[in-house]
Amino acid sequence: MVVDATGRLAGRGAYLCADGSCWRTALDKNQLTRALEVPLSDDVRAYLETGAMTHDLTTTRGGNRGQE
Q: Is residue 41 part of a domain?
């Protein structure tokens, strides 16, 4: 399991707000585990736990679909 800031990797995915404000709630309520139907790995959980304060994914998004 990996965090895909671009939203372009193949496979099952779950969306969270780009600024990280909803990550804590998603972790506390196990929303990601339910959405993905797999438990979160320790490294992904740690990334998301620190991410609400330090990661800004708004600048790492891909281009508009069909216009690459």
A: yes
pTM of the model: 0.57
Residue whose entry in the numeric block shows the structure tokens 């708004």: 58
List pLDDT tens digits, range 9-53: 888 888 878 767 788 888 889 988 898 888 988 888 888 888 655
How many other CB atoms sit within 10 Å of the CB of residue 17?
A: 13
Please check whether residue 32 lies inside any domain of the structure. yes
Residue 16 burial (CB < 10 Å; 0-12/13-18/19+)?
Answer: buried
Domain span at residue 28 reads 23-59
Work out how many domains the chain is built from and give that number. Answer: 1
